[in-house]
Automatic annotation (TrEMBL):
It comes from the Bacteria. This is Ribose operon repressor. CDD domains: HTH_LacI (cd01392), PBP1_PurR (cd06275). It comes from Mangrovibacter plantisponsor. PANTHER family: LACI-RELATED TRANSCRIPTIONAL REPRESSOR, RIBOSE OPERON REPRESSOR. GO terms for molecular function: DNA-binding transcription factor activity; transcription cis-regulatory region binding. Keywords: DNA-binding, Repressor, Transcription, Transcription regulation.
């Protein structure tokens, strides 16, 4: 494999001149540039990304650790992150934890060993990254997305789930519903707990009781919403409206209602959370709380890049504001 020295020898110039031509970071006369480009072509020379990263002490690569899921929210979030990376001249390396703590820490070590310039983490509080691994790479900045940080230096970006849960429930109350149930996400996730707290706050403010069995813990997946709705339908007194903690569970709830012959919203109203792309194509289209996924991804990358440029800056905790999207399910 040809090296930069081979190119310089064939072109009759110094290796620094070859570097300037390849990186286009300094003026080189046209005749010299042509000789270098001709030598590169003859030798089929390809610059070494590893050598460049070692020289510049940066790889222009960002790592992201995430738990794979059938929930479309995560794929839409990753899409926004990847787009933001590309627009800023970075590549994204994605690692899936599959919800396994050992696999998460192994992937974490792999990303850090490969010298990513920064790291985005989207995990659960019960499976937190190993502080010992993080401590071995103190120069690599970290941004947490959507959950409370572990005890270590990191920036945090999340949506206002407490407000979002309150908004969803208050909308159902304003529409005249009183028997309102809640399908929560896993309660080891801060957003799940906050959305549940928002639901309870709105119910309490309206003087509405929450009957036994009206709060059901799901899993943020289609299956969780389906199973939770089956449980709600089996209650002696069914709710007349349901707040699902995310849209994936709302989709599952739709399926259970369809199989039971229960019409939305005539027999039961449903409101979701996240505003995934699928929500607008459901029958009827799903009323939901919009979580700004593209903005979340873009903000995460910008915060991370800013942290890489100024590592000593104060820890940031940023919060995005949810928005009610009114469609036909309530």
């Amino acid at each position: 494999m040809a090296t930069m020295k081979d190119v310089a020898r064939l072109a009759g110039v110094s290796t620094s001149t070859v570097s300037h031509v390849i990186n286009n970071d300094r003026y080189v006369s046209d005749p010299v540039r042509e000789k270098v480009e001709s030598a590169v072509k003859q030798l089929n020379y390809a610059p070494s990304a590893l050598a460049r990263s070692l020289k510049l002490n940066q790889t222009r690569t960002i790592g992201m650790l995430i738990t794979a899921s059938t929930n479309p929210f995560y794929s839409e979030l990753v899409r926004g992150v990847e787009r933001s990376c590309f627009e800023r001249g970075y590549s994204l390396v994605l690692c899936n934890t599959e919800g396994d703590e050992q696999r998460m820490n192994r992937n974490l070590e792999t990303l850090l060993q490969k010298r990513v310039d920064g790291l985005l983490l989207l995990c659960t509080e019960t499976h937190q990254p190993s502080p010992a691994i993080i401590a071995r790479y103190p120069a690599i900045p970290i941004v947490m997305m959507d959950w409370e940080p572990f005890s270590g230096p990191s920036d945090l970006i999340q949506d206002n789930s407490l407000l979002g849960g309150d908004m969803a429930t208050q909308y159902l109350i304003d529409k005249g519903y009183q028997r309102i149930a809640c399908i929560t996400g896993p309660l080891d996730k801060t957003p799940s707990r906050l959305r549940l707290d928002g639901y309870r706050a709105a119910m309490s403010r309206a003087g509405l009781t929450i009957p036994e069995g009206y709060e059901i813990t799901g899993n943020f997946e289609f299956s969780g919403g389906y199973q939770a709705m089956q449980s709600l339908l089996a209650l002696p007194e069914r709710p007349d409206a349901v707040f699902a903690g995310n849209d994936a569970m709302a989709v599952g709830a739709y399926q259970a209602l369809y199989q039971a012959g229960v019409s939305v919203p005539q027999d039961m109203a449903v409101i979701g959370y996240d505003d995934i792309e699928l929500a607008q194509y459901m029958t009827p289209p799903l009323t939901t709380i919009h979580q700004p996924k593209d903005e979340l991804g873009e903000l995460a990358i910008d915060v991370l890049i800013h942290r890489m440029a100024e590592p000593a800056q104060q820890q940031q905790r940023l919060q995005l504001t949810p928005e009610l999207i009114i469609r036909g399910s309530a």
